[in-house]
Write a structure and sequence with these properties.
It is a single chain. By secondary structure, the chain is an all-beta fold. The chain has one domain. Helices cover 0% and strands 51% of the residues. The protein has a four-stranded mixed β-sheet, with no helix packed on it. A four-stranded antiparallel β-sheet has the order 4-5-6-8, with no helix packed on it. A three-stranded antiparallel β-sheet has the order 9-10-11, with no helix packed on it.
């Protein structure tokens, strides 16, 4: 899986030589800075917005993009994310050096 400044996420089929894209995800309005996988979901961040989409192969998908998380608005751009499955928590690193627990 890869994210890009062209605002897309690509799920790659690495069983082919060379690897080819099997799914293209679109929906962000800014360059995607980071990705995380949460069980069967892709979490993506562009600016202070987080998108969530199911992992599916062989399709082109629109990513439903949430504006900002309502319980804890972020005042900076997200530069890193980590999904902690044991606690069902999303950690985000912001460009100002802060780390926040969002879910």
């Amino acid at each position: 899986m890869s994210a890009s400044s062209d605002k897309t996420i690509i799920l790659w089929d690495v069983n082919t030589q060379p690897a080819i894209s099997s799914t293209v995800y679109k929906g962000h309005t800014d360059s995607i800075a980071t990705l995380a996988v949460a069980d069967t979901q892709i979490l993506s961040a562009a600016g202070s917005r987080i998108g969530v989409a199911p992992i599916q192969e062989g399709t082109s998908m629109k990513i439903p993009v949430m504006r900002e998380l309502k319980k804890m608005p972020l005042r900076g751009s997200i530069s890193a994310m980590l999904w902690l499955s044991y606690s069902q928590s999303l950690l985000v690193g912001l460009d100002d050096g802060q780390i926040r627990v969002c879910i």
